[in-house]
Amino acid sequence: MALSKAEAVTVTTIEAAVPALDEARSLLAGFQAMIRERRTHDLDTWIDTAARSLLASFANGLSRDRKAVAAALAEPWSNGQTEGQITRLKLVKRQMFGRAKLDLLEARLIGVG
C-alpha cells in the first residue's frame, strides 16, 4: 500500500511515539509474507514473538488451532470458494427475511424466472 507523503509522516510520528505499534505492524507484515510464501516452518517462531506484543490475542487464537493453521500453510487447496458461497447465501437470506417464500429465494440465488 503506497502512502502519501502526509500519511507517511503521520505513520512515522505515531510509530515514534508508540514503538509497540511499529512492532505490531512489522509482525503483521511478516505474517502476511509467511502466508503468501507458505512458510510453515516460521509459524511457531512467529506465534511466540507475537504472543509478547500487541497481537497477543491473535497469536493465542492461532496457537489454539496451530494444526489447522499449519495445514492451511502446507496444503495447496482451500475452502475459500465454499465459504464465499455460504456467505453470499446468508446475505441474501438476511436481505429477504420476511419478504418471500422459498421460490423467490431460489429465483434470486439461481436467476430462475
What would you say this structure looks like, in words?
With 113 residues, this protein is mainly alpha-helical. The chain folds into two domains: 70 residues, no CATH class; 31 residues, no CATH class. Helix 1 packs across helix 2, helix 2 packs antiparallel against helix 3 and helix 3 crosses helix 4. The longest helix is centred in the N-terminal third of the chain and has 19 residues.
Structural class, from secondary structure content? mainly alpha
Helix content: over 70%
User: Any idea what the radius of gyration is?
Assistant: 21 Å
In terms of quaternary structure, what is this?
A: single chain
- Count of strand segments: 0
Low-pLDDT stretches: none
Task: Report the sheet with the most strands, covering strand number, pairing sense and barrel closure.
Answer: none
Continuous helix count: 7
Based on Cα principal axes, name the global outline: extended
What topology emerges from the helices and strands here?
Layout: H1 5-17, H2 19-37, H3 43-50, H4 56-64, H5 66-74, H6 80-95, H7 102-110
Helix pairs in contact: 1-2, 2-3, 3-4
Concise structural overview:
With 113 residues, the protein is an all-alpha fold.
What are the salient characteristics of this protein?
113 residues; mainly alpha; 2 domains; 73% helix; extended
